[in-house]
Each structure stands twice: as C-alpha cells, then as structure tokens.
C-alpha cells in the first residue's frame, strides 16, 4: 500500500465555487504559471504517485460557498485516479484545508476526533489533549500563567480500516509559524516571531499528546503532512531547545514515531540533509530548499519494513529520468510529494 503526503500550493485557486476545475489559460496563483499548466502538472504527479491514500495539505477551501470534498473528487475523476474518494475534518478559515484522497477499494477512512467537543475554552485539565477544533491550555513561557492555544488549521484525525483488515489511526497536520505580519520595526518582528514560534511548539505538544493517547491504546499511528519546522529554519530555534519535529516524534514521553528523513535532518544540522520543498527568495534571487514534509509511523508500523521516498525532481534519480514528471513536479507546487510504501 502506498500512502502519500503532498502540499499543493494554491490548490484552491484551480476550482470555481462549484468545485469544477478552471482549465483555462489564466494565471494561477503560482508565479508565472497558468491554471491549465498547473492542473495538467498536478494530474501527471498524482497519476505517477498512484497512491492508495494522499494527505492533501492546502486542499481546496471549505466555506459557505465552496466545498473541499466535491472539488477533490472532481479532480480525481478528471484524471482517473484510484484515490477518488475524499474526506476532511474540521474546516478552517485560511483557504488551506487538510483532506485525504483515498482508494475506497483499498480502505475506508472516516473523520474520528474521538473525544467530546470542548469549544474554544478548551480542556483545562492538565495533560488532557482536547479535540483539534477546541483549545489547549499550556504554560508556554513558565510564568505560572496558562496560555490558551487554538489551531488555525486543525489537524485531520482519521480512523482507517484497510480491506485486508488492518486498523490504524492517521493524523494529517499542517503546523506553521506565521510570518510577523503587522510588525513596524525590528523589535516587533522579533517579538511577534517568537510568539508565533511558541504557539507552533504548543500545537506540536498538543498533537504529540493525542499521538501518545493512541499509542497507549495500542493503536498503530501515522502522522503526516507539512510540519514546517526543523533544524536551522529560523534564528529563534535555539531559544526553545527543540523543534516541532522532535516534539511530535517523541523525546521520552512514550514510544517514538519514526521517519528516516526527520532523523537525517536532525542528525545533519551542519551537513547535507534531505529536502521536500523549494522556495524562490526574491531578496537573494535564489532558491531555498528545506525538509518540511514528513510521514511518521509508530514502532509497530516501522517494524513492517516500510520504504519512504521524496519525489524531488533533482534529488530522486527516478524522477529526474522522466522529463515529463520532473517538469510537472516543478510546475505543480513548491513542495514535492513524500510517499510511504508499506505492507498493510
């Protein structure tokens, strides 16, 4: 079985309000890319992946006018994908939903947040991890005052039943430390940046506590998506001692999740490391590469000898060898898919 995570930049801009693809020559929201070109490129990439399940990060918007599931299912139908059924969880207000496209012949997937809703007050009981649409109480700065944290992009928590009889938990996540919008000077940039990173780490702690709950219940777990954090990504990393990656994977609070790319990134703070995203930096007129996209698995799944792959057009020889796929990966998004092949 192949499981993938893929952050599709500005996927929402490729659909109209009825969820139909806008296959025309107008510009997409990606720089210097038309909607038709991006849609065609995405069709090539998704077809090449041929995955049983794809966690789509930055999926089409869900609001009073638009619906994520029909849009994704229309996309899957347009390109004849096996992963043709879609499911999402709690909607957000960022136009970047989290949703799963999956093959209904290979598995059943349902949104399953388990616990009762807590509302935006959240759970005030220590060590309790509320549903992702609620709020989380934690003292972020050791000032004996609880902070209340909420997700702008609530993770998607799924119960998966494969047709072979395997049951597991899957959590799609998009953790992101926001840019210092509204800052008027360098001091405010630093203040806002630190506050945003503290919030991201709190979200990682919240996510980790949910993972620990599933592990303690003996449930196999996969956490996948864009965690947007890791060694060397910003100058505030050393203030906090650890990254979101380390928190979610686990550092002594129960069994650790495993992802070989995360381990390499953490072990290679000053050397070569894998990358899954490529961004153009206008100030330097050059590209920045980073490892942002992960598929982390619980020890019982790691024991099944899974194989990970980053579909990087320049780093993966199989992608480089197929010019149509190589070009499509560059055209489709600023992130590249990550896949996990595992016997389930």
Describe what this molecule looks like in 3D.
The strands form four sheets. This protein has a six-stranded mixed sheet, covered by helices on one side. It has a five-stranded mixed sheet with strand order 5-8-9-10-13. The protein has a two-stranded antiparallel ribbon with strand order 6-7. The longest helix has 31 residues, at 186-216. It has helices at 35-49, 68-79, 186-216, 237-240, 244-249, 260-267, 299-302, 317-320, 323-332; strands at residues 2-7, 53-59, 85-88, 97-102, 107-111, 136-138, 147-149, 156-162, 167-174, 221-226, 277-281, 286-290, 293-297, 307-310, 338-341. It is built from nine helices and 15 strands. The chain has 344 residues and is α+β, with helices and mostly antiparallel strands. It has a single domain (2-341), classed as 4-Layer Sandwich (Deoxyribonuclease I, Chain A). Helix 1 packs across helix 9 (323-332). The protein is globular and about 55 Å long. Strand 9 (167-174), helix 3 and strand 10 form a beta-alpha-beta unit. Helix content is 27%, strand content 23%.
